[in-house]
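Milestone 3.1: sequence recovery, worked example.
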């Protein structure tokens, strides 16, 4: 019962173990994106093995604004804590730039780790940062990013906590600089590399070849700069993980827009109520039967002192 009474005797595989298996078997780990606890529960119920907390979606859902560095570390960690409490799956979270310098990164890692997150990615953009598939990004000096990754690796208390180094250098400085930065981040202690916003299959193949044997992240962003490859194409390249940050956000937004447009015309949902999920089905989905069982289990018990 995620978020209520967990089965501590049979916890999930660690993120590190899942990535190792994905790399060895050339079967990338798929991490659908979520921006709240409900989305995380839906991902778990759909039998995925891990969850990705999207910064893009978190910003959109909390502020109704674009991903341009408007949220701080505490807001992101708070959202991550709610998500990890809702599921029994490893959660990878967006940690933006680490929210400051190397010392800030140490606190960021420890806060996410205490929130129950299994891994984070830290990027090399300057503040305020932008979504990786937006225009006009700028990055910090490579030495600054390397220092952040080194600090992040040293700060973790759990050896299974995964540090993902993301570089956005491809857009402002070209592929060679992105490769150089990724290599330096790996040497500084990054467990996984994430070369963001690659623009064609050739660039993807170059990155995969350059870092063969290293877990790599493929960012599947609808409408983004990276080509929309199939799962098998990504597997053949050798990527270990596929994050899909905005798919659930886009589908949920489209569904709500459709509902509201029909409601505006009809005045009430009566003409299309049968198209909606039933109230009972929804309360079952979010765990009301589990709550009822717990009420029965603990009803009338005398407190122990």
């Amino acid at each position: 019962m995620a978020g209520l009474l967990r089965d501590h005797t049979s916890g999930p595989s660690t993120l590190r173990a899942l990535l190792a298996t994905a790399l060895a078997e050339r079967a990338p780990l798929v991490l659908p994106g979520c921006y709240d606890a409900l989305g995380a529960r839906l991902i778990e119920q759909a039998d995925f093995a891990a969850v990705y907390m999207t910064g893009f979606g978190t910003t959109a859902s909390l502020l109704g604004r674009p991903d341009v560095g408007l949220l701080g570390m505490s807001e992101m960690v708070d959202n991550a804590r709610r998500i990890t409490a809702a599921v029994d799956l490893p959660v990878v979270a967006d940690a933006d730039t680490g929210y400051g310098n190397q010392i800030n990164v140490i606190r960021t890692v420890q806060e996410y780790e205490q929130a129950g997150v299994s891994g984070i990615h830290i990027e090399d953009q300057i503040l305020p940062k932008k979504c990786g598939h937006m225009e006009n990004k700028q990055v910090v000096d490579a030495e600054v990013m390397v220092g952040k990754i080194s600090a992040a690796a040293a700060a973790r208390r759990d050896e299974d906590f995964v540090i993902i180094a993301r570089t956005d250098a491809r857009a402002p400085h070209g592929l060679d600089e992105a490769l150089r930065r990724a290599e330096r981040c790996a040497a500084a202690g990054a467990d996984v590399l994430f070369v963001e916003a690659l623009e064609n299959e050739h660039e993807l193949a170059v990155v995969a070849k350059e870092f063969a044997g290293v877990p790599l992240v493929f960012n599947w962003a609808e409408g983004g700069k990276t080509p929309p490859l199939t799962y098998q194409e990504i597997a053949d390249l050798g990527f270990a993980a596929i994050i899909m940050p905005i798919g659930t956000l886009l589908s949920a937004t489209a569904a709500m827009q459709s509902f509201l447009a029909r409601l505006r015309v009809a005045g009430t949902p009566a003409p299309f109520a049968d198209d909606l999920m039933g109230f009972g089905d929804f309360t079952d989905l979010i765990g009301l039967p589990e709550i009822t069982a717990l009420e029965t289990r603990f009803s009338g018990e005398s407190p122990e002192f």
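Residues 253-296 form one domain. The chain has two domains: 8-245, 253-296.
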